[in-house]
Amino acid sequence: MKIVSSTVLFTALVAFACCQAEPETSLETSAATSELIDPEFGVGVQGTLVNTSSSLLRLTSIPGVCDGTKQLVCASCTTLRLCQGTVPGQDLTVTCSTDQPYCNFGTTSDRCSADPIPDVCTDPNQNVPVTCSAVGKLPDASNCRIYHGCLTIGESSSIYTCPTGYVFHPGLELCALENLFARCTRIQCSGNFLGHVRYGNSLRFYGFCDGTGQAPIVFKCPNRANFAFIAGTTFGECVYACPAQGNFPNTNDPSTYFQCFWANRRLRYNVIRCPTGTRFNATLRICT
User: Fold this and answer.
1) DSSP assignment, residue 200?
2) 65 pLDDT above the threshold of 70
3) How far apart are CA 150 and CA 237, in angstroms?
4) What value does the mean pLDDT of the chain take?
5) What integer pLDDT is reported at residue 16 of this predicted model?
6) CA angle (187 as vertex; 183, 191 as ends), nearest 5
7) Chitin-binding type-2 domain: which residues (predicted)?
8) How would you label 159-176 residue by residue, b for 16+ Cβ within 10 Å and e otherwise?
9) What is the torsion angle, in degrees rounded to the nearest 10, for the CA atoms of residue 37, residue 42, residue 48 and residue 49?
10) What pLDDT, on a 0 to 100 scale, did the predictor assign at position 150?
């Protein structure tokens, strides 16, 4: 009977552990790829870059003030304010109809029109950059057939247009063939509503309405986070699910990271900003 030394046994155990770990790594890789495929509508496709201009801005100047002269004034690109008096709060905001979807200026009264205000409001079927609220891809609030690419928060987006018959799919973050499972999604702000609105059924994308009736600003939750409304309010937040204790990247903003820790038998987190000039290194799990 041969006696196996402890060194040989330890080496065998290490080799066994390594071999068992390999399938898990490959599964993680294939899982990341499979997120781009759904049997219901096929494979998502990249859009075509059509505009990187930062010169176009949406909603740059709309007074929307009842000054005693006009009976109706434009409150936003798509809403009218009915001036019922000079006391604040007496005026009423209404949304233009689908056959005359835009508000346009007039001499004694503004009106709903088939034409948007020149150089201020833009037809949502045209390509209009937005200010990036996160790094990565963002849907357009009004036009489901384009999406925005963002490299830096606060800068203007690059615009990608989907092929004919395709729409932006929030689950893939790519263009998908429009059908029952990939529908055209648009979000808008009604009247003086202040708060958040969901982007269709997406758990990651949502919009913010500032109370002026203007087009909502689109946001997205980072990886491992879902959007949820706060009970009793019109506001919500992204709730991050810590995978373990430690530091983890914020996919929305590389200059910040999630610091996860145990407290009262629960994993909790703080969002930490890296020092100026550094970014979070996902490999080292520190700012470098």
Assistant:
1) T
2) yes
3) 21
4) 80
5) 40
6) 150
7) 129-186, 239-288
8) bbbbeeebbbbbbbbbbb
9) -30
10) 95
pLDDT at 90: 65
CB 78 within 8 A of CB 188: yes
φ and ψ at 259, to 5 degrees?
A: -105, 105
Q: How far apart are CA 168 and CA 174, in angstroms?
A: 6
Q: What is the mean pLDDT of residues 101-126?
A: 78
**Residue 243 burial by Cβ neighbours in a 10 Å radius (0-12, 13-18, 19+):** exposed
With tokens 């992204």, the residue in question is 238
24-47 in b/e burial notation, b at 16+ Cβ within 10 A? eeeeeeeeeeeeeebeebeebbeb
Nearest to 152 by CA among 133, 130, 127, 128: 133
Mean pLDDT of 41-70: 66
Half-sphere exposure of 58 (CA within 13 A, CB side): 22
Per the CB < 8 A criterion, the answer to whether 36 and 65 are in contact is no
Nearest-angstrom CA–CA distance, 243 and 240 = 9
Structure tokens at 160: 């990608």
**What is 146-167 written as a DSSP string?**
EEEEESSTTSBPEEEEPPTTEE
Contact 149, 140 (CB under 8 A): no
Residue 86's pLDDT band (cuts 50, 70, 90): low
User: Do 251 and 239 form a contact (C-beta atoms < 8 A)?
Assistant: no
Length of the chain: 288
| Inter-residue contact 119 to 105 (CB < 8 Å) | no
At residue 241, the pLDDT reads 97
Query: pLDDT at position 88, please?
Result: 59
CA dist list (Å): 36 to 32, 49, 171, 245, 271: 8, 19, 8, 29, 29
Residue 203 tokens, joined: 């758990």
Token pair in block for residue 131: 């200010």
Who wins on pLDDT, 93 or 174?
174
Smallest Cα–Cα separation from 12: which of 2, 23, 20? 20
